[in-house]
Design goal:
single chain, alpha+beta, Deoxyribonuclease I, Chain A, 2 domains, 11 strands
Length: 311
């Protein structure tokens, strides 16, 4: 029979930590609202840490803790797997537009290098975010000769947006997303039109900002429903694809997140990221193809480049 003090040590050293791990992972994966939106965004790195914890616990023969860690891995990855397993029927299209999205990071001083990377994508349209007046002037100097159609919506720090295009942008609209701008325009190629919306949603760093971001999702849904054409939404949406607000937006609009749900874009450290915050969503009449991420000099985000196929 195990002595009482040994049983107490087992409870302290294994049972209680195991329960804590299970409860925290379940809350992070299944919780909604603030503050759970923050750990929920970090499920990918969280699952990796849980794997390390499970290996360590097995090595130290802490079997209860190891079992809890392994169970927690499955709890953490299930929302990600569920999102990543969604499929959209592939349809062959005759026309396509190449779009690149870059959050340039407003404090970044490497405008020339960023512009060079943007041009190297070969994109027909560039969505650029965290663009203040200084950045917009610099980008015009580097990009306007090859992408002569452009417009800009200034905003508070880190929320200005610009579009540059090889094709006319008509109309060029600035939408009001609860005090922050989004850009909506129409691009036509080979007789087919695409409505492109570039949005940078509020980072949910507090309960009020979380509510603000969710209100922006509702306004974006209205903008999509009134577009009247195939729609592509691109931007730093400050939301992971398994977030309830993201999934509700998809149900309300019919837009789809594509096959890149597991493609992290932030924070970019040495070309490696762990949280998918930048997204491409397309309506039923178009689809994104050949999507890839790339490094943006001086930015804390990775960029996205993709083809939008028009059916």
């Amino acid at each position: 029979m195990r002595p009482p003090d040994a049983a107490g040590r087992t409870a302290r050293h294994q049972v209680l930590p195991a329960l804590a791990v299970l409860l925290c992972s379940a809350a992070a994966a299944g919780g909604s609202g603030f503050p759970w939106v923050m750990p929920n965004a970090f499920l990918i790195p969280g699952a990796a840490l849980l794997v390390i914890l499970a290996v360590w616990a097995l090595w130290r023969r802490k079997l209860l803790l190891a079992g809890a860690a392994v169970t927690s891995v499955f709890i953490a990855v299930w929302p990600i797997v569920e999102v990543g397993s969604a499929q959209k029927q592939a349809t062959r299209g005759d026309a396509f537009i190449t779009v690149a999205h870059l959050n340039v990071h407003e404090a970044n001083e490497a405008a020339a290098a960023v512009a060079a990377v943007a041009k190297a994508t070969g994109a027909d349209v560039l969505s650029l975010q965290e663009v203040d007046e200084h950045w917009y002037r610099a980008l015009q100097g580097h990009l306007a000769s090859e992408l002569p159609y452009h417009f800009h919506a200034p905003a508070e720090r880190n929320y200005g947006i610009a579009l540059f295009s090889k094709y006319p942008l008509d109309p060029a609209e600035v939408l009001d997303l609860a005090g922050l701008p989004a850009l909506r325009t129409k691009v036509s190629v080979e007789g087919k039109a695409l409505v492109l919306i570039s949005a940078h949603l509020r980072a949910p760093e507090s309960a009020s900002k979380w509510q603000h971001r969710n209100r922006q999702w509702e306004l974006l849904a209205q903008a999509v429903r009134t577009a009247g054409e195939p729609v592509c939404l691109v931007g730093d949406l400050n939301t992971v694809p398994w977030d309830p607000a993201f999934k509700q937006f998809e149900r309300a609009t019919g837009l789809w997140h594509g096959t890149h749900a597991w493609r992290p874009t932030w924070p970019s450290l040495g070309g490696i990221s762990c949280v998918p915050l930048d997204h491409v969503l397309t309506s039923a009449a178009c689809a994104d193809r050949e999507i890839r991420s790339f490094n943006i000099p001086g930015s804390d985000h990775r960029g996205l480049v993709f083809k939008v196929v028009l059916y």
